[in-house]
Amino acid sequence: MISSNDPQLSRRNVLAVSAGLAAEFTLPSGLAQGTAAPPARPRGQVIAGLSQEPTNFHPLMPSTEVDQGVWWNLFSTLWYVDPAGRLMPDLAREVPTVQNGGISADGMTWKIRLRKDAKWHDGQPFTAEDVKFTVELINNTAFRARSRVGHNLVKEIRVNAPDEVQWKMNKAFSPYLFYLAQCFMVPKHVLEKATDPNSSPFNNTPIGTGPFRWDKRIPGDNIQLVANPAYHGKGPYLERIVFKYIPDLTVLYTQFRTGQIDYIGIQGILPNFVKEAQGLKDRRVVVAPSPFVEHVALNHEHAPFREKVVREAMYMAINKKAIIDAVYYGYPTPTESILPNLNWAARTDLPLQKYDPAKANALLDAAGWKPGAGGIREKAGVRLEFTNSTTVGNAAREQVQQLLMQDFKGIGAAMTISNLPAAVMWGEYWQKSKFQSVIVAVSFSTSSDPDVTQRFASDQIGAKGGQGYNTIQYQNPELDRLLSDGVVQFDLAKRKETYAKIQSLIREDYAVLPLFQDVSREGVKAGLQGYAPNLNMPSNCWNMREWYWAS
């Protein structure tokens, strides 16, 4: 990996070494590869226990991490990011660079060479027409795209041959390799027939090029995928994957302990069960770095939160240490940044939050927020009260809510709890900003690239017609300018400087109230091989094609 302060990093060579931009990450010993050879033919099944139910199976539409965990097994990207932060080719024969002729020296022309042996699950060949269709569908304003960031800069897409596609960019966009690393290709021959791009039988019976094919879904219970015998890559080694939905995290752990599920992921093992789980026979517990930042997300359109001093006082009122130690048993790392600590652009020198309710009260007094009925502060007829939401059945977050209620009560702020099932919570309630505040863990960056445009840019607010994930409805012209600068810079040292300013501004403005950088506390049965935690992925189900049983 080339150091970010290398004076030779020009636009040309940063594109050439784009795969090296990611944070380094070392897997726990013995997890990256199995101790026994994989089977010659798919064998056995894995039951993966998830606390949230996957419900969206169109990989270009709004989603949650559990949806994406399913997508990685049904669909393929042109390339992906491995646990070491390297871009690895999948549907593309190679990751395009300046050196191999895939990207022009100015970053404006891209040429992608595709592998010739990939097929859709219905037997049709995957071609450059599918790549062209995928990007054009994302940019179709009638389509409810997950995000158009980067894709909206693509123009003049041309199919040179069945295995080669090229396009031009409206302007150079340095993170685009990483946006494409999480952009799943969809079948033109299936979706071009849909009269409404948002509604098609494909949404419920998806067809991909991935290692597993769609079998069936039992709503509220499970999703089943079966091995794709025509898969173009390594594996699959399993006959079947069952994604089992168990919303109560205590029940989820119990089923892992008793052997009813083989893998426990996403929210994983509750902190209070980790020590016990580590002593279980024939189980492996992996505590690994996570890209997710647990935080209190404030809807900036909720009247009290429009005022910075309120957000600042609320942050001062949070006893982070009590939350981390009492609820999470000290596993997470306190953070002030929205980027993972291992990200190459992360700032670890931001001002540390100090638990200081007395100062918080003084700030609110000085700003004219006076105690009113029931001790709740108010100003100009607006009371400092709000709801806080998270998913039903997450015992740890429910404990945090109780602590937060007491912390905020101490500064005259009234918080009430309004928790919802995951399918409701992360639907329009979250995506269309219908909440007032939420406890949530978010991977703000795009793989290992530090761009956070879709999370914080003013034009990425879904509730206001944007196509991104700025669900907190945060708007700051200076941040918009910095975000625009960051994505057209190719010199790593300059980019790092820009993203340092971005992180500082988000911290200074209390755009979100970070609690900690999370760790994944996941478990697998001892005989399950191939499991590989990946800091650069939204789900550690990303490589289930390589999972297999040792015997």
Provide structural commentary:
The structure is a single chain. Mean pLDDT is 91; it is low at 1-34. The chain has 551 residues and is α+β, with helices and mostly antiparallel strands. The protein is globular. It has a domain at 290-518: Dipeptide-binding Protein, domain 3, CATH 3.10.105. The strands form 6 sheets. Strands 7-8-9-1-10-18-11-17 form an 8-stranded mixed β-sheet, sandwiched between helices. A 3-stranded antiparallel β-sheet has the order 4-6-5, covered by helices on one side. It has a 3-stranded antiparallel β-sheet with strand order 12-13-14, with no helix packed on it. Strand 12 and strand 13 form a beta hairpin. The longest helix is centred in the last third of the chain and has 17 residues, at 492-508. The protein has helices at residues 11-16, 65-74, 128-138, 176-180, 188-191, 249-257, 271-278, 308-317, 320-327, 357-366, 395-409, 422-425, 428-431, 453-456, 477-486, 492-508, and strands spanning 45-50, 79-81, 87-89, 109-113, 154-161, 164-169, 212-218, 222-227, 240-245, 263-264, 283-298, 370-371, 377-379, 382-383, 385-388, 414-417, 437-442, 513-525, 528-529, 548-549.
Record keyword descriptors for this entry.
disordered N terminus; Dipeptide-binding Protein, domain 3; 16 helices; 3-stranded antiparallel beta sheet; 25% helix; 8-stranded mixed beta sheet; single chain; alpha+beta; 551 residues; globular
